[in-house]
Amino acid sequence: MARHGEILDSFKHKVDNFDFTNEEHVTCLKMVLIKCCDISNEVRPTEVAEPWVDCLLEEYFMQSDREKSEGLPVAPFMDRDKVTKPTAQIGFIKFVLIPMFETVMKLFPQIEEIMVQPLRDSRDHYEELKQIDDAMTEAQKKKTENMSLGGKKK
Question: Which of 18, 28, 49 lies closest to 118, judged by CA?
Answer without folding.
Answer: 49
